[in-house]
Amino acid sequence: MPVTAQKAPRIAASSYLNTAPLIWSFTHGSRRGEAELTDAAPARCASLVANGDVDAGLVPAIEYQRIPAVAVVPDVCIGSRAPVRSVMLAIRVDNLNEVRRIALDESSRTSAALVKIIFREFLGFEPEWVSCVPDMAQMLAENDGALIIGDPAMTFAREGLQVFDLATLWREHTSLGFIFALWMMREQAAPAARRIDFGAARDEGLARTEEIVDFYEPLLGLSRDDLRTYLHENISFSMNEELRAGLELYFKLAQKHGIIQAVKPLKTIDA
User: Once rounded to an integer, what is the mean pLDDT over residues 5-30?
Assistant: First the structure.
């Protein structure tokens, strides 16, 4: 009887620069063919995992509390212990206290919740929120401010705007780093998906930073030094105690402010 070839696990992630070290091994490195990768914006990655359309996804962190029956890959994340540079709030008024309406990048889930927490918990008021496609000019045409994430947040024109880095705002109020996304896997995922070594994939991607820089330099129009600094200093791809504490506080405040209903403890796929 012929042996049926095992189907590759299905995974999803965005193609933003900040995901590149986590997926480069699957697209250009030693793990090509090990998984079937779907390119999707972060919010859609959450939907793909929640609907069972993929086995694992690089999902906005807030969605761990919303998607049932998922676990996270231990240690691997997209976080920041410094200015993150790719999650930005731009306003066209003089200061944050004057903001009355903010456009939220429809690609975002974690950062959209984070900016709401910052206003409710730390600034003591709440503007009106509207969801928009990530086009800064369009977002600011009818709103006082705009939240934008990913590569567009690194390249928009800033003339005449006050610009705030959300990881910096979070640190100013909490003294903690922040985790924006995690690999999440469905508990029903096939054994082949559970055997994927996402940590080793991350390590290979970071070791191949120059290839990533080669790829993104013409796409983003940023200098090679800017790209290297972003990947090695602005983004943290491993979860340490500070980042974990920041994530736990974020979940706690999200529940306090009605963004999530309850907080479940972080479960890893090897637990």
Answer: 93
